[in-house]
Amino acid sequence: MNPVLSDEQVRETVKKFIDHLKDKKAKISHEENWGLKKLKYVIQKKKTGFYYLLEFQAEGSVINNFEIEFQRDERVIRWQTVKLDKFAMEYADRRRKKLNEKSKSE
Amino acid sequence: MSNKTEIRYLSPVDIEKRKQSKYCRFKKMGIQYIDYKDPDFLMRFLNEQGKILPRRITGNSMKFQRRLAISVKRARQLALLPFVGDNLK
Q1: What is the pLDDT of residue A29?
Q2: How far apart are CA A34 and CA A2, in angstroms?
Q3: pLDDT band for position A35 (50/70/90)?
Q4: Alpha helices in chain A (DSSP H)
Q5: Percent of chain A with pLDDT over 90
Q6: Domain residue ranges of chain B, discontinuous segments joined by +
Q7: Quick check: A82 and B36 CB within 8 A?
Q8: Cα separation of A13 and A39, whole Å?
Q9: Using the beta-carbon criterion (under 8 Å), do A91 and B33 form an inter-chain contact?
Q10: Out of 4.10.640.10, 3.40.50.150, 2.30.250.10, 3.10.450.50, which CATH number does the structure's domain B24-89 have?
């Protein structure tokens, strides 16, 4: 979810992972770029990182491969995959709507 | 002679009663899911060193304390919250 490098490379990495998911026929429901953020502690001697959030639906075997892909990529310094339960889905839906409204009003 | 050591009060001493009973914020506000992506909110349940506050202070119910702990730990993993820190608040 968060590589540290120049912005062009960031876009490349994100695209690579999205394409990887699309190849495996996963449904991507939401993606969100948080941009450059300060890390609360130092990871690999870096104090800032790009954050990127992906919400998707896929089978377990797909996710296993997806995680291996993260481990192979040196541009990604930290990542996390989280299972969403029904409350989390509700929350994610509401969050998405809020963000959509915000972007419309701006 | 025994009265010397014994302290006697004419009226019963006021023992401070707890004015407000503790309640679970999540139950009251109707929050079902605690988001790990929201460090400002999670910060309310941490002390200055970044430790999770115990239930006896926050008054959370067991169910939500467990979920809170999970999301705090997820946030720590992503460097949204520090594992250790000073003067967070």
Answers
A1: 79
A2: 9
A3: confident
A4: 7-23, 60-72, 86-105
A5: 0
A6: 24-89
A7: yes
A8: 19
A9: yes
A10: 4.10.640.10
Q: Which domains does chain A have, with CATH numbers?
A: 2-105 (3.30.70.60)
Residues in chain A with CB shorter than 8 Å from the CB of B32 are 87, 90-91
What DSSP character marks residue A34? E
Residues of B in contact with A85 (CB under 8 A): 33
Contact check, Cβ <8 Å, B79/A43: yes
Q: Cβ separation of B78 and A88 shorter than 8 Å?
A: no
Whether A39 and A48 have beta carbons less than 8 Å apart is answered as yes
A88 to chain B: which residues are within 8 Å by CB?
33
Query: How far is the C-alpha of A84 from the C-alpha of A55, rounded, in Å?
Result: 9
Q: What is the pLDDT of residue A104?
A: 67
Which of A52, A38, A53 shows the shortest CA–CA distance to A10? A52
Proportion of chain B in helix, strand, coil states, percent, rounded to 5: 40, 0, 55
Interface pTM, i.e. ipTM = 0.73
A2 near B CB under 8 A: yes
Cα separation, B62 vs B32, in Å, equals 13
